[in-house]
Amino acid sequence: MTQQMDLLRFTTAGSVDDGKSTLIGRLLYDSKSIFEDQMDAVETASRNRGDEEVDLALLTDGLRAEREQKITIDVAYRYFATPRRKFIIADTPGHIQYTRNMVTGASTAELAIILIDARKGVLTQSKRHGFLATLLRIPHLVVAINKMDLVDYSERVYEEVMDEYGAFIAKLDAQNVTYIPISALLGDNVVEKGANMDWYDGPTLLHHLETVNVGASVNHVDFRYPVQYVIRPNQDFRGYAGQVASGRVAVGEDVVVLPSGLESKIEGVVTADGGLEMANIGESVVLTLEDEIDISRGDMIVRKRNLPQKSNRVDATICWMSDEPLKVRQAYWVQHTTRQVKGFVSELNYKIDVDTMHRSAATTLGLNEIGRIQLTTTQPLYYDRYQINRVTGSFILIDPATNSTVAAGMIRGKSREVEDLLLDEAGDESGRPKSTNVVWEQEGISLAAREERHGHGAAVLWFTGLSGSGKSTVAKKLEQVLFGMGVSTMFLDGDNLRHGLNGDLGFSGADRQENIRRAAEVARLGYAHGHIVLASFISPFAADRRAARGLLPEGRFLEVYVKCDLEVVKRRDPKGLYAKALAGEIDNFTGISAPYEEPEGAELVVETDLESPDEIVARIVGRLRDVGILGGGE
Amino acid sequence: MHYQHLKLLEAESIYLIREVAAQFERPFLLFSGGKDSIIMAHLARKAFFPGKIPFTLLHVDTGHNFPETIAFRDALMAELGARLEVRYVQDSIDQGRVVEETGPYASRNGLQTVTLLDALAEFKVDAALGGARRDEEKARAKERFFSHRDEFGQWDPKNQRPELWNLYNGRHKPNEHFRVFPISNWTELDVWQYIQMEEIELPSLYFSHEREIIERDGVLLGASDVVYPVGDEVVKRQVVRFRTIGDMTCTGAVLSRAKTIDDIVEEVASARVTERGARADDKRSEAAMEDRKKQGYF
Ligand SMILES: Nc1nc2c(ncn2[C@@H]2O[C@H](COP(=O)(O)OP(=O)(O)O)[C@@H](O)[C@H]2O)c(=O)[nH]1
Q1: How does residue A334 score in pLDDT terms, banded at 50, 70 and 90?
Q2: Are residues B5 and A272, on separate chains, in Cβ contact within 8 Å?
Q3: Cα A594 to Cα A589: distance, rounded to the nearest angstrom
Q4: To test ligand 1's pocket by mutation, which of A11, A22, A52 has the most ligand atoms within 8 angstroms of CB?
């Protein structure tokens, strides 16, 4: 008996008669999850209806109304297991009028099976399913090309579907797409390969389901702990019950409680099975803190150096789920993690046609419609973008009059002004990243595997300091030394980014902030790929540097303050910029006409007017050894 | 024995149980004495550890319970230090709230609904936690974790609230209540493996034993005051165990030699009949379960 059996939640969507129910019936039947009495009941029901053959689809059609109309109208959950995995299927109907059901099924899924009838090829519906799956950020898509038996098991048909669907899905931000030719009715490539498609050398559907990487969509980096319930059996014990939404935390770590901002340390991770050293993503535990702090349901415990975003105006994509249309500027309850706050949709920017992905102006959203909104809440939300965190980035809206759940929402970020929205490029509606998100486990190659290959840990060294302070000199020199040691490095500075990626940005406060945000996202990508990233930016504002730090796990972001006396840099003035700034030819010049906020709590402070570059580089290498990023330390 | 998927299911169930404690004012845990409600009690204990379970347990006693069930229940409550309320179908009959079926095939299973709804009203319960699972029956496959009931305790399958991510909307009007099913995603095998992993104690009925049995319509019923032979039925001594424990009049046994949890896990893993297949009441009509659910039965 396998003890390492894990769990995969997946969703299936298909148009009527694509063979979805048959496929599920087959997966259940071939994996021996159908019992004799269920099979008998299905046979009886088929016979009562006058069908000639046993309809495997009846195994999965639950409610009477649906049985009468012969279509699935809600989300139904099915279970089966193989020795490797337990599977939970959210079986959803595929029609456009069931968009909300598909969204519901997709919200917890890690994989989506999109069924395409080989005879019909890619239909509008197939595209809609792909769009919704990427919108909800399901990390794995499987395009199952069904009824291959009816097209003579033709490889050409398979390839045509693959090309057409591939071209479509490339425009979205889909993550991993696998194409499998099957016959649900006869079983080819569902559980067994069968003898009819020798030309196909990929996995069978079940094999793929059994081996696909689970947990790919979860965020292993940012510790977020929404408090569910306070446990206080007596005066001496006060614990905070919750489920770790993302990341993890260890006993002794510094944490902050939001919204109060009060700080403490994790004292214990309490469970009925005994205390733990660490609380990991997905675990339901009780945390205790070293200090007596007033904490209640809806508060969030996070790491001191990895904070979520905070705003009472967020930009979001919502799917409307109620017969009553959306009323702009009317109050709804916003349920976000374990909090409920009042809020309203302050703007409806547009709605999206789920079939064409076309945007159009709208004054309301009706049942099953998807739109982009600005949501204003009475109290700020502490959130992450849905793209990087499906738990802290999602919310529902509840109608206070009926208590119904009327919308599902995915946070895209802080609200921006209307002008910004108009500048948006078309086609990013799937939540196409403005920057990318991959610090957590990626499909295929994990960070750990990359680090092992490189022979060192991944990290970001963030050099901040005045223009001319010597940041880039130090960073480049350090890079050479590290490179010589066989380290996989990456170098970023204001110049190389402003030439291309950040070419659209100037030096206003907002542009500077965006410049640093992008730089930090690029650094994070480099980190995710196992490099030691040397990022050299003036980055004068503490808040921007803090945001950059927040993108990385504790201990992997090292801030290096390259300090140099302002008078010295003015004299050095390698690019002649200070002279121009002093002459008033350059606005917003840090140190002259714009502030530089000195770092507090930088991991390293180096002083280029007092130490030589070689000494500084040696000191930084020593530090990298001490903290274990480079081998050969303590 | 450690199963990764069971730890995930456990964490999900504990999350749901805590949501109920946090979102409702007078939640109750419905306790039938069967293994699913024993697991629910076990999970509730874990959810609030080191505190006590912050809600009352409610048992609707049909009067046709196996004596083993009641003894086990009382011992478990003492161990958990939990509050228990019992309401009797007999009282509903005496008060004329329900009319008892008569004849040898009479079952009180359907009558429970009235006693249950009366008890929920009496205690002003706004959330009733139950141990039902979606794999038990087709009609349950679309059941929500948080299942809304109107002021008559009825379920409207066409008008269920969507459930997204792990956001559960328990808002309700006065007089409405919710049924909450934290172990919805568990299968029968998961339950048994969990019992094995957690070393949970169960009533002896679940283990193979010798008992007087009457076979009726292919269902093996335990002979008792309320189940006696009719026509050419005979009472036979057989070695059986029960896969579910409910009303004696409709809970079927299976022939089994499984004496320990390990035996049972193995037996369930290779079973060919669902546990509900051994219940007489589900066989009455194809949509039987759905009808009973609409009326407020679980
Ligand atoms: N020839 C063939 N027929 C199939 C296949 N899969 C499904 N069907 C048939 O297509 C019809 C619709 O299937 P069903 O599973 O009910 O579709 P659903 O509406 O997507 O659930 C039924 O008559 C099935 O028997 C297949 O792989 N090959």
Answers
A1: very high
A2: no
A3: 5
A4: A22
